[in-house]
Amino acid sequence: MNFLDLIEQKKRGVELSEEPIGWLVDAFCEGDIPDYQMSAFLMAIVWRGLSDSETVALTHAMVRSGERFDLSNVTAPKVDKHSTGGVGDKISLVLAPLAAACGCAVPMVSGRGLGHTGGTLDKLESIPGFTTDLDATAFSRQVESIGIAMAAQSDDLVPADRHLYALRSATATVEDTGLITASILSKKIAEGTEALVLDVKVGSGAFMPTLEAARSLANRLSSVARLDGLKCRALLTDMEQPLGRSVGNTLEVEEALDTLRGEGPRDVVELTLRLTVEMLLLAGLASTTVEAERLAAARLADGSALQVFRHMVEAQGGDPAAVDNPGIMGRAAEQTSLTPPRAGWVLGIDARLVGEAAGDLGAGRQTKDQEIDLQAGVFLHAKSGDPVETDAPWVTLYHDPGANVERAIEKLTEALQIGDQPPSTRPLILEQTE
Question: What is the average per-residue pLDDT within 383-406?
């Protein structure tokens, strides 16, 4: 095939069939198509878009580019959850062990934080000794034995996605919903899941800032997943302010452990339970929403989910003592507290600015290879709807001496909105796709 012809066809909006899409993915992975030509093709996709059938073909080709986890010996229903990323989003740390405690098998391939958003892998690696590097055999055996594994994308799992994503990041071709869908679903299919619940974030701290954009992505993900045989459901959830009160890796693990002990923030508990309910319904482990809610709430309350988390930590080389004594994970050397400029009610806290401030303190990265400070971050003493006074802190910064505290303070100050009356309540769950 002639790759220049394929670029020209996509520029004209021609819908490509599965054969040429499969060929170009294979050729790119083998080094037969240079980056500059693939960049032109990606830009043509951003301009003209991908149809659902093209997205399915791209997803299949990406899955075929590497190995697939063999979960054939796992008898429990295999269900996963994917979030499009946000600030303070530690839901997977609670949801995955909770779903496993309810009878699901949860094979979860996760990512690292980038920019203002956090990453599940970084949070897990806050636990001393915890490894997220599992090969296909170890991953499959762990899911079979304890019902859960949370690991990084290996070199052999969907390598086409890794190569294409690096190029998309460098050429401003990230935002197309077809490319996003193929990237997400290819990894979920390769990891061996049978059903998928999607948490599509909406708001200032989300990749999709508007409800319209988030709805478009959720619909594309759901429709393509079903075309590929995956049972799928998507929730659109609020990311105007951070989830929970902690933003930063060690801080978020501590908050997740609090939640597993029944002491978590209201929004973290609410979203965890709602997403778990959807997983149980897709898995066939509950026939009604009420039944699923009762099962999930019971397994959270009786300590079963916490015990599954402890088993996972042990299985992946982590120190299980950290589950009961989070202080083992360490604390930042310094703390700086900010008081509000005036008394009143918190109208809102811009999630993106909070995420960027945490990054300034060392908790985030701008490039995939950048080192991060696992103990750095912020703790929000007040959130939207809470009253604040000038003699009490509304946020505490955790950092080492070399952190850019001044810039973080500027962003946090800008993020806080105060009014004379409490704001109207904004729902956490905005929409659901069927």
Answer: 96
Same domain membership, residue 251 and residue 195: yes
Task: Count the domains in the chain.
Answer: 3
Choose the catalytic residue: 10, 78, 187, 201. Answer: 187
Domain span at residue 290?
79-324
280-306 in b/e burial notation, b at 16+ Cβ within 10 A? bbbbebbeeeeebbebbbebbeeebbb
CA 264 to chain centre: 19
Residues 99 and 199 in one domain: yes
Burial class (CB in 10 A: 0-12, 13-18, 19+), 12: exposed
Q: Is 187 a catalytic residue?
A: yes
**168 flagged as catalytic:** yes
Catalytic residue among 183, 204, 222, 246: 183
- Asked whether residue 111 carries a pLDDT value surpassing 80, the answer given is yes
82 is catalytic: yes
Could you say which of 80, 89, 122, 161 is catalytic?
Answer: 161
Is 239 in a helix, a strand, or coil?
Answer: coil
- The yes-or-no answer on residue 215 being catalytic is no
Each residue's pLDDT tens digit, 143-184: 999 999 999 988 889 999 989 988 887 888 887 899 999 999
Is 161 a known active-site residue? yes
> 78, 81, 90, 168: which is the annotated catalytic residue?
168
- pLDDT at position 2, please? 87
Whether the predicted pLDDT of 82 surpasses 70: yes
Is residue 97 one of the residues assigned to a domain?
yes
Q: Which of 81, 82, 245, 310 is catalytic?
A: 82
pLDDT digits (tens, 9 = 90+) for 308-323: 999 999 999 999 999 9
For residue 32, how many C-alpha atoms fall within 13 Å in the half-sphere facing its CB? Answer: 10
Strand-by-strand arrangement of the 395-399 sheet: 246-247, 377-380, 395-399, 334-338
pLDDT value of residue 241: 97
In three-state secondary structure terms, 401 is coil
pTM confidence score: 0.93
